[in-house]
Specification:
Layout lengths: L1 H43 L1 E3 L2 E3 L2 H58 E4 L2 E4 H76 L1
Antiparallel strand pairs: 1-2, 3-4
Amino acid sequence: MLLKQFFKFFTFLSLASLLVVNVNAQEETLSKNLSEQYESLMKKSTSYQEYKVIKKVGINELWKNINDSLNLAASKNVTALNEINRLEIELKSTKDSLNLRTEALDESNFGRDRISFVGMPLLKGTYNTIVWAIIFILAAIAVLLFLRFVKSNSITKSTRKDYNKLEEEFENYKKISRENDINIKRDLQTAVNTIEDLKR
C-alpha cells in the first residue's frame, strides 16, 4: 500500500519536472527561431546612415511570429499550470487517502491488541491476567465453600446422630419412668389395700 502511494507521488514529481523542462525547451526553441528571424530580417534590410530600413512586411511577419510565440508559450504555460494543479490535487487526495488508511490501520492494530472489558479497552495480556485472576478467585471460593459444606455436613450428621441417641435415651428414660411410676402406683395400691384389710 505504501509502495503504491510512493509510486503515485514519484509519478507526480516526474510529470511536473517533464512539463517544466518541456515548456523551457519549447520557449528556447521559439526564442531561437525568433532570433534567427530577427537576424535574417536585419540581413535583408538596407542601411541608411545609422538607420536600418526594414520592409513593413518583414516587421509585420516578425511581430506576428512574436505574438504567436507568446500566445503559444502562454497557452502551454496555462496547460502546464493546469496539469500541475491537477497533479497537486491528486497528490493531496492521495495523501488524504494515505492518512485515512494509516488511521484505519492504527485503529485496527489498536483494536487487535486490545479487548473491551467492562467498557474499558485493555491489552490482551492484561485481560488474560484479569480473567485468570477471577477464575482463580472463583475456584478458591468454590473450594472454601465446598470445605465448609463438608464440615457443616459432618457437624450436621454428628448432631443428628447425637440427637437420635439422646432421643433414644430419653425414650428409654420415659419408658423406665413409666414402669417405675406403674410399679410405685401398684405398690401404693397394695399398701392401701393392706391398710384397709388391717382396719377391718
